[in-house]
């Protein structure tokens, strides 16, 4: 679980760099910043979800 949370947090970091225009080049006349920001949103949401699941499982064990 924690590995997936870290993976998606890294994906969110990559998405923020793409969204800010620091990584990647525009393809033709289209910028990829929208794609980068969607990576940020999805990555953060999935990371938070996996951390929530890990916390809930830890609470159930006690």
Automatic annotation (TrEMBL):
Lineage top rank: taxon: Bacteria
TM ranges are 35-53
Keywords (alphabetical) are: Membrane, Transmembrane, Transmembrane helix
Protein's recorded name:
Major facilitator superfamily (MFS) profile domain-containing protein
């Amino acid at each position: 679980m924690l590995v997936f949370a870290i993976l998606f947090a890294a994906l969110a970091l990559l998405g923020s760099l793409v969204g800010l225009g620091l990584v990647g080049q525009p393809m033709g006349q289209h910028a990829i910043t929208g794609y980068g920001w969607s990576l940020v949103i999805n990555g953060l949401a999935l990371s938070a979800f996996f951390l929530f699941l890990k916390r809930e499982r830890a609470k159930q064990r006690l």
